Amino acid sequence: MANLKPILVAVIGTGMIGMDLISKIHRSPLLECGLVAGRNPGSEGLQYAAGLGYRTSSDGIDVVVAAARPFDVVFDATNAHSHLEHWNLLEPLGTLVIDLTPSRLGEMVVPTVTGTRIPNRRNLSLISCGGQASVPIAHALGRQFSARYIEVVTTAASSIVGRATRLNLDEYVETTQHAVSVFSGVRDTKAMVNISAAVPPTIFRVALSAEILGANAATVHAAVAAAAEEVRAFAPGYAVTACTVTDERVSVVVEVTATSEFMPRYAGNLDIINAAAILVAEQYAAMQNSAAASQMG
Fold this sequence. Notes:
The protein has 297 residues and is an alpha/beta fold. The protein folds into two domains: 7-127 and 272-295, Rossmann fold; 129-266, Dihydrodipicolinate Reductase, domain 2, CATH 3.30.360. The protein is 41% helix and 25% strand. The protein has ten helices and twelve strands. The strands form two sheets. Strands 3-2-1-4-5-7-6 form a seven-stranded parallel beta sheet, with helices on both faces. A five-stranded mixed beta sheet has the order 9-8-10-12-11. Strand 4, helix 4 (80-90) and strand 5 (96-99) form a beta-alpha-beta unit.
C-alpha cells in the first residue's frame, strides 16, 4: 500500500462509534482524516480527534458541506433522523457517504455478503451492528436451506449503547429485520434487541434461531463456520459460540469481542460495524487509486 495515495475523509458524530472510527482511520494508510464534526464543543470525541492532530468543529454538517473541496468519503455516525438531512446536503457534492445509522436510506452493504462495490447512488447503509453480525449467518443458512422463519436477538452492554442508538431503537429493529429478510430470502423474520445492565458488562451477542426444513447438522455447522471465517478476515473478534440443530430448529449464537485499542472488549457491536465501514472506505480508496493510475496511462 506504500504507493497508494490516501483519500480524504470526514467523520460526523463524536460519540463512541465516531471516536472508534477516528481511531481506525488514524491507523489506515489509505484514509486521511480531514475533519471531525459534531454538535457539542465539549464532547470527548472532539477532544480525542484534536489530540490526534485532526481538524475539529462543533458546527456539524454545515462545516462538512462548506469545505473547500468535497471529501471523498463522509462517515455518518449520528442518528437515523439526522442522516436524511445529511444525505440531502451531501448528495450533490458527489461524496461517498457511509451511513452507520439504521436509516435504511442507502444501499445495504454487508462485506462478506454483498462485497464492497460502490453503487451509483453513493450512499451505503451499514444497516446496524446487529445486522452486520447476524446477516452473514442468516445469508449462509438461507442460501443452502429452505428456511421458514428466522429470529435474531442482539444483546449489548448498556454502557456502550449511546444516546443516538437509544433514540433509534425502533429503526434499529426494523432495519435489522429488513436486512435479515432481504439477504436470507426468508419473508417471515423477527429482530429484537436487549440492552443489558449486567455487571461486568456482557460481550456483544447475537442469538439467531431458524426453522429449516430438512436441516442437517453437519451441513449447518459447515455453512455457519465458513460464514464466520469470512467475517473474521476484517473483524477478528467474531466467533460462533454455539450451533445446534434439533429436528428443524437451528440455533446459532455469535459473540463479537472488540479488538480495538480504543474500546473495551465488550464493545464488539461498535467494532464490527466500524470495521465494515473502514473496509468499504479502503476498498473505495484502492479503486480511486486504480482509476487515477489508468488515466495516467
